[in-house]
UniProtKB/TrEMBL annotation:
Enzyme class: hydrolase
Signal peptide: none
Identification of the protein by name: Sugar phosphatase YfbT
Origin species: Posidoniimonas corsicana
Pfam families found in the cross-reference section: Hydrolase
Length: 226
């Protein structure tokens, strides 16, 4: 039975969660909607549309398609402006290289659109033309709906039930559960261990480096170790 890994991007492979938080805060402020940073952080990992709807619902602002679209554009512009120093999380590149070495299929499924995901994928060394990366642009609904992970599994031609989702937010793990996939939680996005376990993670690690250090514990072995 072939297994595959489906990775979230921001906070899972790329150290970009807090830049997204600040970009959303700047976008909301520019639209005249002040909101505390911690409230924004709790929503990171959702699709941008659902994210803005929930934030606007909390603030009592009038939700219109035009405002949601404006906030999305403002966030993308702010993120691209402040994301120059963003890089991979510790062990991210090494983890992906190891999976390639042992011939374990993997890909990335992110709630971000290619407009913001493209530069960070490049920094990670992932070519979306060579690897079947799935972004928000390519599915009807993003997390916590399962569409991103289901589509990623289809691109790898592996049943979703045989896949392991790796994510840093409860929204990643809820989407994995709805897709009927196992999931691993990482603490590198700012969520707590208990939160990730309650959302469905069967194992929780600190970051990609910690996952790689314990990779045999989630069923990944070199051929000589079979």
């Amino acid at each position: 039975m072939q297994t595959a890994f489906l990775f979230d991007l921001d906070g899972t492979l790329i150290d970009s969660v807090y830049q997204h938080v600040l970009a959303w805060q700047r976008a909301l402020k520019e639209a005249g909607i002040p909101l505390s940073v911690w409230r924004i952080h709790r929503k990171i990992g959702m699709s941008g549309g659902l994210f803005t709807q929930m934030l606007l619902r909390e603030t009592g602002a009038d939700i219109t398609p035009e405002l949601i679209e404006r906030l999305s554009r403002l966030h993308a512009a702010a993120f691209n402006e402040i994301s120059g120093g963003i890089g991979p999380l510790p062990g991210a590149r090494e983890l992906l290289a190891y999976l390639d070495e042992v011939q374990m299929p993997w890909t990335i499924a992110t709630s971000g659109r290619m407009e913001t995901a493209g530069p960070t994928l490049k920094g990670l060394g992932v070519d979306p033309d060579a690897k079947p990366v799935v972004t928000r642009d390519q599915v009807r609904y993003a997390k916590p709906d399962p569409d991103l992970f289901v589509t990623a599994a289809e691109r790898l031609e592996i049943p979703i039930e045989n896949c392991i989702v790796v994510g840093d937010s409860v929204w990643d793990l809820l989407a994995a559960r709805r897709a009927r996939a196992l999931s691993i939680g990482l603490l590198s996005g700012g969520y707590g261990r208990e939160e990730l376990e309650r959302a469905g993670a069967f194992r929780v690690f600190e970051d990609p480096a910690d996952l790689l250090h314990h990779i045999d514990e989630v069923g990944v072995r070199r051929p000589s170790e079979d």
